[in-house]
Design brief:
Length: 331
């Protein structure tokens, strides 16, 4: 049976209008611009404001832009996967809401949750459907309203996260360019260092959990930092080794935008210069599942057909991984 290669044939993104600056955060918590920038590389982040607007609101915007850019009829979309850590509801899936709003009524859709690695997990899952010949048009969305689970009295987490969404269209490759390989891992022993304490079935919402502020992101920053550097570097090195590549062969590292120091450490281990590393964290902060597709959106104009890209991410759970792809079109 013929095995098709999956190629990214379009990218799009959306961030809300409201911009939360470091200067504004100075008035909310004990911090300052120099402290935030030196530790994270973040200057601004976008925040979704308004009643009854969740991750799907941004996902819909990103997919609508994607369909328009690629001249794709919503009826032709056969599968839509949404990677999100902040779904609109426990159910239905945020992907269902996005598909309905964009008119993709012929698609089946579902969510994928792997924290900040979720977009890579979803991208590789979607790739399998293309490779098997099951579907020809698949949309992968990364969307997160992280502001909905951030405690803005906590200096450790409030400075990091922003809201946004990104989306890519996957189609069978017309040649050998496309997604070639993935190295994905997880280690559930790391969950205690980065998680949300309440809100799930183990600890449903109660007056006590709300009063104790347990519905926000809890992170042990130093431990997560060490694991993130190790995990992203390990995944990137393994994907290069498996595909007989060296760092010098890579045109672009597309890292999850968790922290600029994590990104720099990963690039250094791969022996990549700054000019080959996509950086958007200064503008958006950590948008979780949206960070990789938003980076592709912002750098699309610099991408050339055949260029070698390595995607790398690390997230709570712990989850981490890397994907190797050659770009399928000129930006």
């Amino acid at each position: 049976m013929q095995k098709f290669k999956a190629a990214i044939t379009g990218v799009a993104g959306y961030v809300p209008d409201y911009i939360l600056t470091n200067q504004e955060l100075e008035g909310m918590i004990n911090t300052n611009d120099e402290w935030i920038t030196s530790r994270t590389g973040i200057k601004t982040r976008h925040i979704l404001k308004g009643e009854n607007m969740g991750s799907s609101h941004m996902g819909v915007k990103a997919v609508q832009i994607l369909l328009e850019k690629t001249n794709t009829n919503p009826d032709d979309i056969e599968l839509l996967i949404c990677a999100t850590t902040t779904p609109d509801f426990v159910f239905p899936a945020t992907a269902n809401l996005i598909a309905a709003e964009v008119g993709a009524f012929n698609a089946f859709s579902y969510d994928m949750q792997a924290a900040c690695s979720g977009f890579l997990y979803a991208l590789w899952t979607a790739t399998q459907f293309i490779q098997a010949g099951t579907y020809k048009k698949v949309v992968v969305v990364g969307a997160d309203k992280m502001s909905s689970i951030i405690d803005y009295t906590d200096r450790a987490t409030s400075i990091i996260f922003g809201d946004g969404a990104g989306a890519v269209l996957l189609e069978p490759s017309q040649d050998e360019d496309g997604i070639h390989d993935a190295f994905l891992r997880s280690d559930g022993r790391g969950w205690t260092h980065l998680h949300q304490k309440a809100g799930g079935s183990r600890r449903p919402p109660t007056i006590e959990t709300i009063q104790n502020r347990e519905h926000y992101v809890y992170q042990e920053g130093a431990i997560v930092f060490r694991h993130a550097v190790t995990g992203m570097a390990q995944a990137a090195e393994e994907i290069l080794k498996r595909n007989q590549l060296k760092g010098a062969d890579v045109d672009w590292l597309v890292p999850h935008q968790a922290n600029k120091r994590i990104i720099e450490a990963t690039a250094q281990k791969m022996e990549l210069p700054d000019s080959k590393v996509m950086i958007t964290i200064d503008r958006y902060g950590n948008t979780t599942n949206a960070s990789i597709p938003l980076s592709l959106r912002d750098y699309e104009g610099q991408l050339k057909k055949g260029q070698k890209l390595v995607f790398a991410a690390f997230g709570g759970g712990f989850t981490w991984g890397a994907i190797y792809a050659t770009w399928a079109y000129n930006g």
